[in-house]
Amino acid sequence: MKTAPAWVDRQRYPFTSRWLTIDDNELHYIDEGKGDVILFVHGTPEWSFAYRDVVKALRDSFRCVAIDLLGFGLSDKAPGEFYTCAAHSQRLEKFIQQLDLKNITIVANDFGGSIAMRYVLDHPENINRIVLSNTWMRSLKNEPHYARPARLIRTLLGKFLYVTLNAPVNTIMPAAYGDKKKLTKQNHQHYKHALPRGSRKGPYGFGLEMSHANEWWQGLWERLDTVRDKPFLFFWGMKDSFVLPAELNHWKLKLPYAQYIAFDDAGHFVQEEKPEAMAAGIRTFLTTR
Q1: How far apart are CA 50 and CA 187, in angstroms?
Q2: For the purposes of burial, counting CB atoms within 10 Å of the CB of 274, is it exposed (0-12), middle (13-18) or buried (19 or more)?
Q3: What is the reported pLDDT for 98?
Q4: Residue 232 burial (10 A CB sphere; 0-12, 13-18, 19+)
Q5: Per-residue confidence (pLDDT) for residue 215, from 0 to 100
Q6: Could you tell me which residue ranges the AB hydrolase-1 domain spans (predicted)?
Q7: Which of 127, 74, 60, 54 is nearest to 96 (CA)?
Q8: How far apart are CA 47 and CA 270, in angstroms?
Q9: CA nearest 66: which of 27, 21, 121, 100?
Q10: Sign of torsion, CA 136 142 144 146?
Q11: Are 104 and 96 in contact (CB under 8 A)?
């Protein structure tokens, strides 16, 4: 029977590891608690570990399911071209089908936002509520803040930074925190160990998507009005240096009736910096009609 590697700290991540085979690849996930389903979908360079404290706080009342996307965490690190947002979204749909998840509340961040929202847009009848943080779902190709690093990632230097030096974990992740002290050495190691050398196609694939996924994102964005009556809750770290606070304004224009909670002292990874506040906000959101 497959088990989690020894480097996983069971005090920090006290969950039963499970795997599901989808398209000949084994995807790792956790499934904790009972009640209404909350499905957590991470971004880069994360895995389900990122939501550990939120899951701990909510599993007494909800069924918390958190997936490791292909190429991340304890899921397979398959070779080949499996790492587009569209491909991740297709696997997520199969994951939901195989686990027979119903009346789902989505919680997603970063690249996970659009991956999860594709399911929301295609299957609104199976969605209860949506919780998003520091994410986007529109074309970014004409914005220099995103276009410049996207061009770099496509170069040999960019590939070296991602694949050899593990820049998403070693450089970008620490820089994206609002409070750098929140990224402890022990927690950081859980992201480093999950992406050893030779197994970094997942984050590199996401990096390339900054150039290649813009039409896909824009297509989803243009469909957002079809689910605008669904209950949305946004958490936003205002010190995010990657997905700028201005992105929140685009969401507000599209979803004026959504709820928004901003943290002036948090950065990109709200679930790491403000897990207690996030869990409390989600609990209130799901129990208030």
Answers
A1: 9
A2: buried
A3: 98
A4: buried
A5: 98
A6: 37-275
A7: 127
A8: 14
A9: 27
A10: positive
A11: yes
Q: How many CB atoms lie within 10 A of CB 286?
A: 20
Ranges of the chain with pLDDT below 50: none
What's residue 82's pLDDT? 84
Direct distance between the N- and C-terminal alpha carbons of the chain, in angstroms, rounded to an integer: 43
| CA–CA gap between residue 108 and residue 246 (Å, rounded) | 19
CATH of domain 18-287: 3.40.50.1820
27: nearest Cα among 44, 2, 45, 10:
2
Q: 125 exposed, middle or buried (CB, 10 Å; 0-12, 13-18, 19+)?
A: exposed
Backbone angles phi, psi at 128, to 5 degrees: -85, -65
Please answer whether residues 260 and 103 qualify as being in contact, where contact means their C-beta atoms are separated by less than 8 angstroms.
no
Q: How far apart are CA 7 and CA 2, in angstroms?
A: 15
Residue-level pLDDT at 76: 96
The length of the chain is: 289
- Render 152-203 in DSSP notation, one character per residue: HHTSHHHHIIIIIS-HIIIIIHHHH-SSGGGS-HHHHHHHHHHS-TT--HHH
Centre a 10 Å sphere on the Cβ of residue 15 and count the other Cβ atoms it contains: 20
Give the residue from 105, 133, 162, 178 showing the smallest Cα distance to 43.
Answer: 133
Q: Which residues pair with 66 in a beta bridge?
A: 30, 40
Burial 60-94 (b: 16+ CB within 10 A, else e): eebbbbbbbbbbbbbbbbbeeebbbbebbbbbbbe
Structure tokens at 265: 């002292």
